[in-house]
Amino acid sequence: MSASAEELTDNVNCNLSLGCIKRLRVRNFMCHRDIDLALGERVNFIVGVNGSGKSALLSAIMVALGCRAVDTNRGLNLSEYVKEGESFAMVEITLCNSGAQSYQNDVYGDSIIVRRRIGANGSSRYSICNSNGIVVCRKYATLRLILSKMNIQPMNPAMILTQDFSRNFLNVVDGKRLYSFFNRCTMLDQVKSYHQSTLQAIAECEPLRKKKNKDFSDMKAEIDRLYKRIMLQQKLQDAKQRIEEVKKEHAWASVTINEEKVKELENLSASIQSDIAEANKNVEQFRNRLLQLTSDIDEHQQKAVQLRNQNNEVREKVMLVQRDIRAVKLEEEEENRKLKIFKADAKKAEDKFRELQAKEQEKQKQKENLLNEKEKKAKLVEELKKEIEDWNNHLEVFTSDIHMLESTIAEEESEVRLLRMQIKDLQIRSAFLEKQLSIVESPGGALARFHANMPHFCETWKEMVETGGYFSKAPIGPLGNYVTVRDPKWALAIENCLHNYLNSFIVETWDDMKTLQNLSKEFQMSDDIIFIIMPYDNDVPYDVSSGEAKCIYPTVLSMVEISNPIVYNTLIDYVSIEKKVLVPNREEMFEYMENNPPEDVKAAFSADGWECRARPVFRLYASDLEGPRCLASTNAELMQSLQNEYQGVMSELNSAKQNLETSKMKLEKFGEEHERRKKEMEEMEDKIPLTVEREAELQKELITLEDQISQSNWDTDDELLAELENKFLIEDEKVRKQEAVMERLNVSYRNVKEIEKKYLAEGEELSKTLKDTLNRLREIDNECVAVTSQRDEENKKIAKLNLQAEATLQQISDAENKVMLAIDSAKLASSCPVESDRTFQEIDEEMKSLLMRIAIDEEYLSDADDLKQQLDSRTDELREYEKELESLNACSKEIQERADEQKQNIVFLQNKLSQKVQRSFDKFLKHRKFTGELIFSHKKENLKIHVVMQIG
């Protein structure tokens, strides 16, 4: 045992995680005299015969970490662990304390040594030392904190599993006991117990905390009250000093205020005298203004009489002018009537002349129009002939284009049908690959490389084997699961060689084959699996070294490892893998198999998936696989292969969809062009007969126009035109003469009208001036009344000011006497004058306020001698209370945090149990047809799982 300890000591790695056991030392413990073990970084194996003390070391670890004797199931009292004949036993364990989460690293260092000494009488004592071996603490509570920090649970069977507990667990089949074991392993029972005790501690501490808070508030309020009384006493002393200063200031303020009053009265007297002088001056000004206004009234009255006389003269002139205007107006109306008669006669003569002239012009114009129309219609006939010829040519071109478009449309429709079929095939392929990927990603998905339903199929027949009664012996397969490729580059070639045999199963009897075949039908796999009947006693691999193909290339047998000898022999019997060779590429394989290969080479397979057979006829086969699937070296490689294939299919699908959209757009465009050309051709076919008819009609119209031009009389009547023109000129001369007479009358009328306008404007000006003069007379009269009223008011004001001046002089005399008395009184209070910026009223109010406050404070502070002592004692009590309350609050907060953490642990463990049960149900339901509901519940732990599964 000492040699083992030395070997373990040499392999110690210092890079241990927090809580790992670095060293274990045992003295006089059970069967061990003295042993010192240094443990490795990862897994440590302790090997020995029965009774050599392996379990004793595990018990020593549990005892060192604080377990009782009964917890180890190796005794009822610690004294039973002391070696027979010895007085004590000692167990020492060294724990790693390094890392960011270490426990008080500055105190203990990188290691914590826990030592427990056990006496022969059953007593024990702990010593917790730092990394230097110096004892830091001897309390069991400190050990509990260290174990909690390092997440060490010596009572947890999941961490330390004793022999007795493991035997009991393996014999347990009862669900309640298994659940109890789960609670114990996950420490759920202990956490619940801690949680309940924590909640109880919180409930016990809460009344005390509330009472302490209330007492603290009352004490703080009392201290505030005492502090306020002391501050009030200090303010009382300040107020007494202030009252003396205010009294002096008050006495001299009285002198100042009386002096200011005298000055104010003197200023008031001077102001009154100036007001009297100003009022006398105003009275004199009002008298002068009244004299000036009286002279203005006389002047404006004379001006108004003159304006009235001038206005009457202008009115008489206006009446004479208006009489002349009426006479001119009557004469103008008579001449205007004559002018209208002359204009009417001239208009009639002109109309007759213009009418005849217009008829002659119309006749010539009609002749020109007929000639022009004849020429236009002749041109139009030529154009119609040319247009008919062009339309016939276009019609031939449109017919040719339409035939070409119909051919193109048929080709595009065929392309669209092909693309749709391609898209449908690619969608089916992508759905299949998605299903394959989902199965490969699921638990047990490694078997999905053989068939999509292979994982479920294998689990089902294995459950049937465990149940018993279905198979005489367990089937072997799929065979590809026992085959491993030595070099991944040959994986595709070997898979192409073995092909369907990778999915095959071996059974021993015919009944086993029928049972397995019926089961495969349920999973829709019967067409993809080969069932081989082979006796299981043939479990010695064949020696085929003499019959193996002799060539420069490796055989399939040499490039695979087959873990099952029965599978090994089966593949040799059925596939002849020792006679099939592997070639690096297709060209080299083709050349080799063409040049008469050896007789023992049945076939060759290239690394890129091609197969070649030379006998009886030379054949070359291509593989439909792009990469290895069943023989993929890893599940990740299989997934990568499926994902690459899926991405390739999706790329082809997207490309096909884009091509389909392009073809549809082309087809739609060609269809629109076809319809447009067809419509244009139909319109052209409709237009040609109409154009021919139009040409015939124009030919007839041309003949009619020629007859009309030849039969009509186009000569002009010049004599009648000259006679009518002379008559029109005579009447027009009469009209011009009458218009000259009317113009002279209009000039006379405008002149008389100007004179009337001039006289009316002059009359309006005189009326306006007269009106302004009368308004000014009224304003002057009103101003005279106002000035007279102001003069009377100023006289009254002068009398009032004289009385006020006499009273002010008397007040000045009285105020001077008061000033003398105030000076005498102030000298008695203070020999030196006291200056102040405040008013007498402010000083007086402050003095009254200070006297009142002093009286109140002296009455209130009659017992102020012991206030300071009470304040000091209460302040000390408050500090002690505050510390106690802070400690209580911190304790309450820590307990609450522990309760929350324990509650979270309970919820986490319950959720974990629920998920585990759910996964078990899912796994069960996955391979069974089940309908209805399945409910699992545990009332004590408040767990409930509800599963609903549809048929199939």
Automatic annotation (TrEMBL):
<dbReference type="GO" id="GO:0030915">
    <property type="term" value="C:Smc5-Smc6 complex"/>
</dbReference>
<dbReference type="InterPro" id="IPR038729">
    <property type="entry name" value="Rad50/SbcC_AAA"/>
</dbReference>
<keyword id="KW-0234">DNA repair</keyword>
<keyword id="KW-0158">Chromosome</keyword>
<dbReference type="InterPro" id="IPR036277">
    <property type="entry name" value="SMC_hinge_sf"/>
</dbReference>
<dbReference type="GO" id="GO:0005634">
    <property type="term" value="C:nucleus"/>
</dbReference>
<dbReference type="GO" id="GO:0003697">
    <property type="term" value="F:single-stranded DNA binding"/>
</dbReference>
<dbReference type="GO" id="GO:0000724">
    <property type="term" value="P:double-strand break repair via homologous recombination"/>
</dbReference>
<feature type="domain" description="Rad50/SbcC-type AAA">
    <location>
        <begin position="23"/>
        <end position="283"/>
    </location>
</feature>
<feature type="coiled-coil region">
    <location>
        <begin position="639"/>
        <end position="701"/>
    </location>
</feature>
<keyword id="KW-0067">ATP-binding</keyword>
<dbReference type="InterPro" id="IPR027417">
    <property type="entry name" value="P-loop_NTPase"/>
</dbReference>
<comment type="similarity">
    <text>Belongs to the SMC family. SMC6 subfamily.</text>
</comment>
<dbReference type="GO" id="GO:0016887">
    <property type="term" value="F:ATP hydrolysis activity"/>
</dbReference>
<feature type="coiled-coil region">
    <location>
        <begin position="229"/>
        <end position="436"/>
    </location>
</feature>
<keyword id="KW-0175">Coiled coil</keyword>
<keyword id="KW-0233">DNA recombination</keyword>
<dbReference type="Pfam" id="PF13476">
    <property type="entry name" value="AAA_23"/>
</dbReference>
<keyword id="KW-0547">Nucleotide-binding</keyword>
<feature type="coiled-coil region">
    <location>
        <begin position="864"/>
        <end position="919"/>
    </location>
</feature>
<feature type="coiled-coil region">
    <location>
        <begin position="763"/>
        <end position="818"/>
    </location>
</feature>
<dbReference type="GO" id="GO:0005524">
    <property type="term" value="F:ATP binding"/>
</dbReference>
<dbReference type="GO" id="GO:0051276">
    <property type="term" value="P:chromosome organization"/>
</dbReference>
<dbReference type="GO" id="GO:0035861">
    <property type="term" value="C:site of double-strand break"/>
</dbReference>
<dbReference type="GO" id="GO:0003684">
    <property type="term" value="F:damaged DNA binding"/>
</dbReference>
<protein>
    <submittedName>
        <fullName>Structural maintenance of chromosomes protein 6</fullName>
    </submittedName>
</protein>
<keyword id="KW-0539">Nucleus</keyword>
<keyword id="KW-0227">DNA damage</keyword>
